[in-house]
Amino acid sequence: MWQRIFALSCVILYAIATLPDIGAPGYSCDANVMKKSKKVPTNVNSVRPADIKLIMALGDSLTAANGAGAEDPVAVVLQYRGLAFQAGGDKTLDEHVTIPNILKKYNPNLFGYSNGIGSPNVWEISRLNVAVPGANAKDLPAQARQLVALLQQHTEVVNMKEDWKLLNIFIGGNDICGYCRKPVDDSPYNCAQDIKQAVQIIFDNVPRVIVSLTGMLQLEILRETDTGHYFCQRLHHDECGCESNKNFTDAEIRQACYDYNAYEKQIETDGVFERDDFTFVVQPFFRDTLTPPMENGKPTQKFFAPDCFHFSQWGHALVSTYLWNNILQPVGLKNTIANLSEPATLSCPDATCPFIRTTKNSADCSKYLTPVD
Ligand SMILES: *[C@@H]1O[C@H](CO)[C@@H](O)[C@H](O)[C@H]1NC(C)=O
Ligand SMILES: *[C@@H]1O[C@H](CO)[C@@H](O)[C@H](O)[C@H]1NC(C)=O
Asked: 31-368 adopts what CATH topology?
């Protein structure tokens, strides 16, 4: 059955160009905040966007970008990695917003982002995005080990000691989809311990890393977008059991997602992954996002792939705008709500602290200021 679906979906690949998308044509900032540092920074709190050499990602189907370019539910089996908000490098920023496409404006030699369609074992497509569809938090440590192995193998493109690396992580959808059945095993607290274990593997093996964790999204919005869509409800029965299980109330699903966010934030607050050349930051724009994407006063499916669950390329681009702005906002002052109906205007680094924001440079940036190139 899946082979047949795969063959079918190949036929409709060429259709991606006709789907709606979001670009940021003309995005540019003051020349000074776009330059790299005069000397490669040695401190993690002095890293400018242009200093990032490698982009890497861990996650599930939302980082593998399943269905992002799909026009039909069968094509949701395909991993459109090149369109992924955290890790895709397809098209240009003018046509499709992703974190790598923005970073390429700062450093055209950025490496590690995915291009095209394929699974994580195809290096030419996935590069350093090792996200696996269906992954739960407990699968992240294996992904972290895979990432370390890739960095060690590919010395032709990776300078392990010198290169500054941005690691984007997004996980939790599958955990909450199963949480109502296994509230202990899949508890938000346990999931956060798995995330911690994965980051520990990176911390122990890879120098010069900024870990940017996209906080868990509010799955409750799926219920609102599903209302009246029998087809979506049927699909979600299989894809996300707890979303369609009415015994798991809206209030419970919301609380589970808040708890997930809170335990993720705790990892940052505990400061266990702080080192001169390493940090861990949570980007919370999904946390309080409880309003589904709307169009003409009604929930819209434009944000979603044809399975009404994964993000469309439009959804990936929209999410990227909020994630980028979060990356540039100081810890403690980050936006916790995204308007899923409308992209944000992409920010520029703050001239008074033109770095990827960390806990320490958010508290006092003056200690970390360094000259530009
Ligand atoms: C919901 O709860 C009822 C009563 O406990 C139970 O019979 C039913 O199987 C549950 N439904 C699901 C989908 O778990
Ligand atoms: C979100 O965007 C939509 C579409 O542009 C707009 O109508 C709505 O007012 C926005 N919501 C908020 C809370 O800003």
From this structure: Rossmann fold (3.40.50)
